[in-house]
Amino acid sequence: MGKKRIEPDLVTLQAAADELPVDRVVRLLADPAARYAIVLLHDEPTRTLEELADVVTGKTASVEGMIATPADRDRVRIRLYHVILPRLDTLGFAAFDADAKAVTDADIPDAVTDALGVTDSSP
């Protein structure tokens, strides 16, 4: 993911208004941690909460030019568990099993990944 900040292209999302609840998706994408989690789940559709917390915390620290602390990771993990992953589940973008603390079967819509500038790296 690098040090580059991921910003959503709202025009691309608006073009998919017939397919997505755009207002709910925009609300989700307003959170940088949610954007980073979506990119991770696009690349690897099955992730544990711990893996997501590690990478999202690292990405956030990298973009902000900071060193992440255990407290930063705890805040990200709690936000993922209680807010971001349940929203992804509600939107149908991923199956979040709160008991197993894992995401399975993520299927991020093309309009969302396009809005985030995510491209498949397949040849």
UniProtKB/TrEMBL annotation:
One Pfam assignment: DUF7344
Lineage: superkingdom: Archaea
InterPro entries the UniProt entry points to: DUF7344 (IPR055768)
Domain DUF7344: 27-104
Protein name in the entry: DUF7344 domain-containing protein
Taxonomic classification: Archaea, Methanobacteriati, Methanobacteriota, Stenosarchaea group, Halobacteria
